[in-house]
Design goal:
alpha/beta, 11-stranded mixed beta sheet, 7 helices
Length: about 220
């Protein structure tokens, strides 16, 4: 048996295993350790956003440098208000329309926040995923730094088992919920400038965004 098979993987399709897995993941995050959890796009590797060494461990596990700070996932819309100094009207409209879901927004975060997500400071990419397991974990842990659960340059994992094959012992707990039904990355919209801008085309098409914010533009 390969050593990585001994890493704890919880099958959240089983009610008992789901409860144990979610409890283990919450404990791991609060202890500054890494977890892999399902989202509505692809599986993510996550850490407490406010524990710098945990965020560094996340970047190290992926083989990524500080120049690409990970997005932050949250478990409720109200949490967003605690992360930002002021939220543009366009951001509120997009959140109302597409959260929880596959929309990541880039906003200016509150200068008082005690976190270190990487070299780019002042802004943060935030998303509320539409997945019951992820939301249950996030509502207990608070904001988590979460990136796709794969080594940089490798395919994004669409099961926790695939993530374990790549990340092994760097992760404390893996939460398996089966294959991602629609493994398309989230759409990223930058709301820090005068005009909202799509930075990455993803699961939510531009025309749907324009139904809510008509002046949104495609990025270069």
């Amino acid at each position: 048996m390969a050593d990585w098979l001994l890493v704890m993987l919880y099958d959240c399709r089983s009610p008992a295993d789901r409860d144990r897995g979610i409890a283990a993941a919450i404990e791991a995050v609060k202890n500054g350790e890494l977890v892999v959890l399902p989202t509505d796009t692809v599986y993510g590797i996550g850490a407490d956003a406010f524990t710098p060494y945990a965020v560094k461990a996340l970047l190290d596990a992926k083989g990524r440098g500080r120049q690409m700070p990970p997005p932050v996932l949250i478990g409720s819309r109200n949490t967003l208000d605690g992360l930002v100094f002021s939220l543009p009207r366009a951001a509120r409209d997009l959140v109302e329309a597409f959260w929880p879901g596959a929309l990541t927004i880039v906003v200016e975060h509150s200068p008082s926040l005690q976190w270190d997500l990487g070299d780019k400071t002042g802004t943060v990419a935030v998303r509320m995923p539409l997945h019951p397991v992820a939301l249950e974990v996030l509502r207990e842990t608070g904001p988590m730094a979460v990136s796709s659960a794969n080594k940089t340059g490798q395919p994004a994992a669409v099961t926790a088992e695939e993530a374990r094959d790549q990340l092994g012992y760097s992760v404390r707990a893996y939460l398996e919920a089966g294959p991602c039904p629609d493994p398309v990355p989230s759409t990223i919209v930058d709301l820090t400038g005068e005009v909202p801008q799509v930075l990455r085309q993803g699961a939510i098409p531009l025309e749907k965004l324009r139904d809510v914010v008509p002046d949104i533009v495609e990025g270069a």
